Amino acid sequence: MTVEPGYGSARKRGLGVRWRGWNRVLHRTLGYLCAGLTIVYAISGLAVNHIADWNPNYVIRDDAVTLDGVSPEASRSPDFAERLLSAFDLDETIQGMYRPDPDRLDVFVEGGAITVDLTSGTAVYESVRDRPLLRAFNVLHLNEPKGLWTVAADLFAVALFLLAFTGLFMVKGRKGVFGRGGVYVAVGILLPIIYWLLWR
Amino acid sequence: MRRSIALCLLAAAGTLACADADASPFEGEPYGEALALTEITPISAIHDAPEDFVGRRVLVEGQVVAVCESRGCWIDVESDREYEKIQIKVEDGVIVFPMSLRGRTALVEGTVEKLELTHEEAIAAAEHRAEEQGVPFDPESVTGPETIYRIRGIGALVRDAATAP
Q1: pLDDT tens per residue across span A146-166
Q2: Are A109 and A63 contained in the same domain?
Q3: Mean of pLDDT values over A80-105
Q4: Is the CB of B14 less than 8 angstroms away from the CB of A22?
């Protein structure tokens, strides 16, 4: 049997092909499996990265009205809360009420809260609405459900690790991890390290 | 293709096998750890003698009157006495309280802690809270050092508004 220089034996070549084949299958399968959740996590990541600038979970809106005949005494009448709901044209069930001080009343409804200044008669309805999709993305990304989702998220993390690792060996030769690809890998590793060293 | 399907089945089986079997002995909507205490401490009692409670594990009950809007990392629970409340602070991300809890009754377990803030720290804390609540902040409203007693919450059970006592 003639062995071409630089290509090893047929046996070694066979093992290499099999290893590369499984690597490719694993990378491709994980790539498809992780695509959806990666998009969810990426969008949520952008959203919660800027939590100081906006609320990524809720759309909060304030509407104010001024009511006549409001006073601390009047606020204790049984129909006062219903009057508040009417003022904001709300058809919601009252969940509860709270008085943080003698001159203020908070009325909680399913979609928000009404705060009344009992001296000025100013009432502010703060409506709270989940951001469509984004709230769900953030709940999953930040693992609010815990329980089974912790397992799913752990599996996703392991899958991402394997995706990255198998990705290193998808291409052979000069463009692979032992050539130009390796330079990109080094840059990707060094960037966070340099940032950390400068920041700490 | 067969190898891809095999990998998918393996992942699905792993997920199901690791399903969380924890179950709270309480009815309601659980947050964090299951409640271990059964005796409820009135919030007014903590306010009356806070030093006696520092470091003690307590179970309190009351209406949720405020929720951290940005991270859901704290709630204020109404006291059994008018115009009073106590803050329940939880580890960021460990428990996340949704804003829909306002007006619902919560049973919360945790340890009473004491925070002694300098004037500057008190201003920073108040400013941070105002930011979280999206309300204007006036530094002049903080007049000096502050001592805050709050509960470091580890678990809560929230009852539906309709079933609240």
Answers
A1: 889 999 999 999 999 999 999
A2: yes
A3: 93
A4: no
- Quick one: average pLDDT of A47-76? 93
| Prediction ipTM score | 0.80
pLDDT at B129: 79
The answer to whether residue A34 neighbours chain B at the CB level (below 8 Å) is no
Domain count for chain B, please give it. Answer: 1
Domain end, chosen from A110, A130, A150, is at A130
H/E stretch holding A115 reads strand A112-117
- Taking CA atoms, what residue in A is nearest to B132? A52
Residues of chain B in contact with residue A147, where contact means CB-CB under 8 angstroms, are 20, 22
Q: Is A11 an 8 Å CB contact of chain B? A: no
Q: Within this chain, do residues A79 and A173 fall inside the same structural domain, yes or no?
A: no
pLDDT at A106 over 50: yes
Number of helical H runs and strand E runs in chain A: 5, 5
Nearest Cβ partner for A95 among B69, B71, B104: B104
Residue B40 CA: distances (Å) to CA of B76, B86, B87, B119 = 17, 14, 16, 34
Rounded to 5°, the CA angle B11-B13-B17 comes to: 120
Q: Between A and B, how many CB-CB pairs are < 8 A?
A: 84
What is the CB-side half-sphere exposure of residue A59 using CA atoms within 13 A? 6
- The rounded Cα B18 to chain-centroid distance in angstroms is 28
A86: in domain = yes
Which of the listed residues A107, A130, A153 is the one where a domain comes to its end? A130
Structure tokens at B135: 């309300």
Identify the DSSP state of A64.
E
Give chain A's domain count. 2
